[in-house]
Design a protein that fits this description.
globular; Serine Threonine Protein Phosphatase 5, Tetratricopeptide repeat; 366 residues; 18 helices; mainly alpha; three-stranded antiparallel β-sheet; single chain
């Protein structure tokens, strides 16, 4: 084999005619050079220890870089012939990395699979799920800007996955919950209803139908509700609050509307008004730890430290690894004069997220 050119650590090697053989039903074409990825820090002499892994890695890198390259289909067939279980093996690895919090490597693995199987609905869905998990982790860590960026990438990934035909039931089901988190209830309802038309799992079908009916009953697919959320999220709180009040005039018993109003008021530092809105949301059955955390922030700012702590403890029972909640408990303890307890909360935050800037800053001050 002779080296022909170098791109990053990728070396293209020509295949001698003598190696023009078959791998199963796949026929090796000696006229097509093979991309090989050299190990980090190695020289071209590493080619002497050429392995299948180096060739597969090289082909995956080339396909990912340019899925429509002239020889991309050939490389896809080559890789699958050499490693027929690569879809299941790489998918399992990507999921494991995501569960361990290594989202970057998980996404890189799924990118390689997308290059190999560009029309796979499972690969498209797993990519969206990993990006969504990354956004959730960043949100729990209080990194709101980074979480929003990851959520936007997840949104694009779901949109791409939903465009694959025929519709993939699991994509529709998971996308429904993703859109609910983004307060896009109209799109969530659309996904759940579409899932009902293609579902094979009776329990999940019933759950999707129930959520779609609840969205309709609460009128959460109302465009005004979505507009209120978007305005507040984009920093136009006054307009968002007006939209939320408009929604509540027509749906005063829907807790989501009161939570949205409270969120906007809290961002404008209208603490007492926000507390009233969050209390109303609680009375109407608000779910999740967000309402307790938001309410705690407002109570803290009005010097009701006991009330704030009570709400944060409720939130922590729902999500015991939410660093925003744990960090806020540290702030409450600090304001109450218990520096030792506050430091304990901030150290706990750093055990979960060693790079958390808020906990680092408070510990330095302590």
């Amino acid at each position: 084999m002779n080296g022909t050119n170098n791109v990053d650590r990728i070396v293209f090697l020509s295949v001698p005619e003598s190696l023009g053989t078959s791998i199963g039903e796949f026929r090796i074409d000696p006229s097509i050079p093979i991309p090989v990825e050299l190990p980090p820090g190695s020289s071209r002499e590493a080619i002497e220890n050429l392995s299948w892994e180096m060739m597969i890695s090289g082909m995956l890198k080339v396909i990912a870089r340019d899925p429509a390259a002239d020889d991309a289909d050939y490389y896809r067939k080559f890789v699958v012939s050499v490693k027929p279980d690569i879809l299941a093996e790489f998918t399992e690895a990507a999921i494991l990395k995501s569960r361990n919090g290594d989202f970057a490597l998980s996404i890189e693995i799924l990118g390689a699979l997308k290059g190999l199987f560009p029309d796979s609905p499972a690969v498209a869905l797993n990519t969206a799920l990993v990006l969504e998990a990354q956004a959730d982790a960043l949100e729990r860590a209080g990194k709101e800007d980074a979480a929003e960026e990851a959520s936007e990438l997840a949104f694009k990934a779901y949109r791409a996955a939903l465009e694959i035909e025929p519709p993939f039931p699991e994509t529709l089901f998971n996308a429904g919950f993703f859109y609910m988190k983004r307060r896009n209830f109209a799109k969530a309802k659309e996904c759940f209803e579409a899932y009902g038309r293609v579902a094979t799992d009776p329990k999940k079908k019933a759950k999707a139908a129930g959520i779609a009916k609840e969205i309709e009953a609460r009128d959460l697919d109302d465009s005004v509700f979505r507009e209120a959320y978007d305005f507040i999220r984009m920093g136009e709180e006054e307009t968002g609050i007006d939209k939320a009040r408009d929604f509540l005039e027509r749906h005063p018993r829907v807790w989501n509307g009161w939570f949205l109003l409270g969120w906007g008021l809290r961002r404008m530092e209208r603490w007492q008004d926000a507390i009233a809105a969050f209390r109303q949301a609680e009375e109407l059955g608000a779910e999740g730890c967000d309402v307790h955390n938001e309410l705690a922030i407002c109570l803290m700012e009005t010097d009701d430290l006991a009330g704030a702590r009570k709400e944060l403890e409720k939130a922590l029972r729902i999500e015991n690894d939410n660093v925003k909640v744990i960090s806020n408990l540290g702030v409450v303890a600090l304001r109450a004069g218990d520096r030792e307890e506050a430091a304990g909360f901030f150290r706990t935050v750093l055990e979960i997220d060693p790079e958390d800037p808020v906990a680092k800053r408070y510990l330095e001050e302590l």
